[in-house]
TrEMBL record:
<keyword id="KW-0443">Lipid metabolism</keyword>
<dbReference type="InterPro" id="IPR000089">
    <property type="entry name" value="Biotin_lipoyl"/>
</dbReference>
<keyword id="KW-0444">Lipid biosynthesis</keyword>
<dbReference type="InterPro" id="IPR050709">
    <property type="entry name" value="Biotin_Carboxyl_Carrier/Decarb"/>
</dbReference>
<dbReference type="GO" id="GO:0009317">
    <property type="term" value="C:acetyl-CoA carboxylase complex"/>
</dbReference>
<dbReference type="InterPro" id="IPR001249">
    <property type="entry name" value="AcCoA_biotinCC"/>
</dbReference>
<dbReference type="InterPro" id="IPR011053">
    <property type="entry name" value="Single_hybrid_motif"/>
</dbReference>
<dbReference type="GO" id="GO:0003989">
    <property type="term" value="F:acetyl-CoA carboxylase activity"/>
</dbReference>
<dbReference type="Pfam" id="PF00364">
    <property type="entry name" value="Biotin_lipoyl"/>
</dbReference>
<keyword id="KW-0092">Biotin</keyword>
<feature type="region of interest" description="Disordered">
    <location>
        <begin position="66"/>
        <end position="89"/>
    </location>
</feature>
<feature type="domain" description="Lipoyl-binding">
    <location>
        <begin position="87"/>
        <end position="163"/>
    </location>
</feature>
<dbReference type="GO" id="GO:0006633">
    <property type="term" value="P:fatty acid biosynthetic process"/>
</dbReference>
<keyword id="KW-0275">Fatty acid biosynthesis</keyword>
<keyword id="KW-0276">Fatty acid metabolism</keyword>
<feature type="compositionally biased region" description="Low complexity">
    <location>
        <begin position="66"/>
        <end position="78"/>
    </location>
</feature>
<dbReference type="InterPro" id="IPR001882">
    <property type="entry name" value="Biotin_BS"/>
</dbReference>
């Protein structure tokens, strides 16, 4: 009996690992309850190797290309590559799904060029069937929207650039 349960648990963990990979998540935690005193708590996480190549890749080309390419041209690509480093970046406080409007078919909370006040809702991040309104941390103008409606986001992922 416990062997069947173990096989089912292994299949469950493999399915969670596939979910992690397919949705490009870095961490997933689930508790599976079998009965009163019987449960399984699983936490799966992975290291995303994107950060190391992103740091290593620009270092070599910039060192070799700096004499041939003007500094203004090499500075322009850096902004789109790492919007999280922008001082006006608003990042996701949680893992979830982004929604740009309160309900399907309604107007989006923001668009590029929208002036917002501190505390205005920029978008919603749904996490575990809870709709979390993401407020503007300060007054400003929306310069860039870095996510699409319905897209999954990670903790700390840049959502919007305010200036």
């Amino acid at each position: 009996m416990s062997e069947k349960k173990t096989e089912a648990d292994v299949a469950f963990i493999k399915a969670l690992a596939e979910l992690l990979q397919e949705n490009d998540l870095t961490e997933l935690e689930v508790m599976r309850e079998y009965g009163d005193d019987d449960s399984l708590q699983v936490r799966i996480s992975r290291v995303v190797p994107v950060a190391a190549p992103a740091i290593a890749a620009p270092a070599a080309p910039v060192a070799h290309a700096a004499p041939a390419v003007p500094p203004a041209a090499s500075a322009a690509p850096e902004m789109p590559e790492d919007p999280a480093a922008h001082p006006g970046a608003v990042t996701s406080p949680m893992v979830g799904t982004v929604y740009m409007q309160a309900e399907p078919g309604s107007d989006p909370f923001i668009s590029v060029g929208t002036a917002v006040k501190e505390g205005d809702t920029l978008l919603i991040v749904e996490a575990m069937k809870t709709m979390n309104h993401i407020p503007a941390p300060r007054a400003g103008t929306v310069k860039r929207i870095l996510v699409e409606d319905g897209a999954p986001v990670e903790y700390g992922a840049p959502l919007v650039i305010l200036e």
